[in-house]
Specification:
dioxygenase activity; globular; oxidoreductase; 15 strands; DIOX_N; single chain; Jelly Rolls; IPNS-like_FE2OG_OXY; about 300 residues; 7 helices; metal-binding; 5-stranded mixed sheet
């Protein structure tokens, strides 16, 4: 069951009133787990070049793309039907195809053009990571912490930060009708920053335990990024901030997007923040290293 378009809270990064912005982020993360970001500093040319490079790759013959099939190090190409993010789904395999890219200086990355990484992807990655760092600082304020809290505990040292290019096919066989572009899931990370080409399809479910689930269509805001809280941040905040279920439905049009997953340093310990627990709200989760947490989540996700 779904409803008309949902307008998420709008966060303006050009505002000089950081306390007000932080409070708006806090409310958005408690109510939705998702919000728009405008005036983020990533220009239209950079985004356009990103999608141009993405389309060029996904337009390659499948045989060429499969030469870059995703490795055990989680870098490279995944064809349609190779992944089902919702293990309870009755369908075998999501419709999307994707291409995963690790850190810029990572020798494990795979590239289609004689091993040369495209400058447009490098430019976008650098800019989206900077936006991510700015948001983490504001999220710290939103949690009544020092704005440099996550930097001080080493969470942002040598982060991985994967960029995933995504293509959802417009034309699908009759036998695939009803399948999802991406099935229902929440992200494993601290935060995800998403840019899309404007084609609809993204839906969120704010109450994951509700039955039946209510899915809301996320409205596209031109020039805005969509940011969502991941499971790791939900764990850090003792569920004060919500990691919201989301999915992408097929709409009969090709859809392109790019998700940047901001992970903490793998040695950083994720444990309940002091500002998110009390005698009446004790920590719900045991402390765990980021790397150990991600490895276990990935193992469970791909053991299906």
């Amino acid at each position: 069951m779904s409803t008309p378009n949902l307008y998420l809270p709008l966060i303006d990064l050009s505002s000089t009133d950081r306390a007000s912005v932080a409070q708006s982020i806090r409310q958005a993360c408690m109510d939705h787990g998702f919000f728009y970001v405008i005036n983020h500093g990533i220009d239209d040319v950079t985004v356009s070049s990103l999608f141009s490079e993405s389309k060029k790759f996904f337009d390659l013959p499948l045989s060429e793309k499969m030469k870059l099939e995703r490795s055990k190090d989680l870098r490279g190409y995944m064809p349609p039907y190779a992944e089902t993010l919702d293990p309870s789904s009755k369908f075998k395999g999501d419709l999307k195809e994707s291409f995963d890219i690790g850190p810029s200086n990572d020798s494990l990355n795979q590239w289609p053009s004689k091993g040369k990484k495209p400058a447009s992807l490098e430019s976008y990655r650098e800019k989206i990571m900077n936006v991510g760092f700015r948001l983490i600082s504001l999220i710290a304020l939103a949690l009544n912490l020092d704005e440099n809290y996550f930097t001080k505990i080493g969470a942002l040292d040598s982060i991985m930060g994967f960029l995933r290019l995504l293509h959802y096919p417009g034309e699908i066989p009759e036998s695939d009708k009803g399948k999802y572009g991406t099935s229902a899931h929440s992200d494993f990370v601290m935060i995800t920053l998403l840019v899309s080409d404007g084609v609809p399809g993204l839906q969120i479910c704010r109450e994951k335990d509700r039955s039946p689930q209510l899915w809301e269509d996320v409205h596209h805001v031109e020039g805005a990024l969509i940011v969502n809280i991941g499971d790791m941040m939900e764990r850090w905040t003792n569920c004060t901030f919500r990691s919201t279920l989301h999915r992408v439905v097929a709409v009969g049009q090709d859809r392109y997007s790019a998700a940047f997953f901001l992970d903490p340093n793998y040695e950083c310990v994720v444990e309940c923040l002091e500002t998110c627990c009390s005698e009446t709200a004790p920590p719900r989760f045991t402390p765990i290293k980021c790397g150990d947490y991600l490895k276990e989540r990935i193992r469970l996700a791909y053991s299906q």
